[in-house]
Amino acid sequence: MAAYSILDLVRVADNSSPREALDRARDLAAHAETLGYTRYWVAEHHNMPGIASAATSVVLAHVAAGTSTIRVGAGGIMLPNHAPIVIAEQFGTLAQLHPGRIDLGLGRAPGTDQHTVRALRRTLTATDSFPQDVQELQAYFAPARAHQAVQAVPAAGTEVPLWILGSSTYGAQLAAALGLPYAFASHFAPDQLLPALQIYRDRFQPSAQLDRPHAMIGVNIIAADSDAEARRLATTQQMSFADLFRGTRGLSRPPIDDIDDYWTPMEKAQAQRMLTRAIHGAPATVRAGVEALLAETGADELMIVSDIYDFGARLRSFELIAEALEVRAEAA
Questions:
Q1: What is the four-CA torsion angle of 189, 178, 163, 2, rounded to 10 degrees?
Q2: Taking every annotated instance into account, which residue ranges of this chain make up the domain Luciferase-like (predicted)?
Q3: CA 236 – CA 317 distance, rounded (Å)
Q4: Taking the complete model, does pTM exceed 0.85, yes or no?
Q5: What is the pLDDT of residue 122?
Q6: Torsion 140-146-150-151 (CA) sign
Q7: If you write DSSP's letter for every residue of 283-314 in order, what string do you get?
């Protein structure tokens, strides 16, 4: 049976503040915990006014403090933006505060534009050392060795589980070689989903962390009481994609009745290609869509994005998704 988890964009809406977005992230994670979702992740994005999770480890500290059992993590940290020791210190601290609950997903892309990469004091060539940086990070989380010259305090011995994220076959190859769980970003880059999963499973080498492949896939799911209402709620995300194509990075906006009044035919084609795996509808529609997706991919876990403007409607969406997929919280 597949596991079900949540990726939250920590959206700042045009009628809210970053503080409200951060508190809603904590509240959503607490709600997801009661519904039985496996994990709650946020991602590192920079220079985007509509996303409040740039300081990812700080956001996770806020979220983890407001929950008690759900796994909390990064999906992901864009490792080329950072020295591995700094990430080990941050996530080692989180693991000390919330033992057994912290995940660390690692991405190879900068997650931002070239101007911001320079502001981060990094270079685009930092991606070249990604495999070595992942292994360095693993070493910091392992038990400290005698006479070890550099330790990431207090990370040593926390064994924070690492995930490799990807939107191409590169990440699949690396995750397989290192024996790590793999998360594919099919919620915005679905084109290479099936080839990447095949490569990951075919080439997987067991490791101390994982003895068999574990493949997670991202999927946009919006649930409402009717298919029509779900499609309307989805226009918020569709407008966000159109804005990205236009080079506009704005705040989350309320849904509209007709998305074709907003985007151009070219923007529509681009967005539909990126959102081709999206599932929008009432619980029965969601259930059928997820069953088909799992049958096609054999995914071990779905990482669900429900990008909805109104927070109450977003909570309701995750409730309906949990109902449709028979997600259950474990008894205490």
A1: 80
A2: 7-300
A3: 14
A4: yes
A5: 67
A6: positive
A7: HHHHHHHHHHHHHHH--SEEEEE---SSHHHH
Residues 6+ apart with CB under 8 A from 17: none
Q: Where are the alpha helices (DSSP H) in 126-168?
A: 130-141
Compute the distance between CA of residue 167 and CA of residue 107 in angstroms, rounded to an integer.
9
What is the spatial distance between Cα 222 and Cα 329, in angstroms, rounded to a whole number?
21
Q: CA-based Rg of the chain, rounded to a whole angstrom?
A: 19
Rounded to 5 degrees, φ, ψ at 69 are: -125, -30
Q: Structural domain boundaries of the chain?
A: 1-160, 216-332
First-residue to last-residue Cα distance in the chain: 21
Q: Which residue has the tokens 């990447």?
A: 196
**Please, which pLDDT band fits residue 126 given cuts at 50, 70 and 90?**
low
**How many angstroms separate the CA atoms of 37 and 33, rounded?**
6
- For the record, the structure tokens of 43 come out as 């991602």
Query: Which superfamily, per CATH, for 1-160?
Result: Luciferase-like domain (3.20.20.30)
Residue 274 CA to residue 315 CA, distance in Å, equals 24
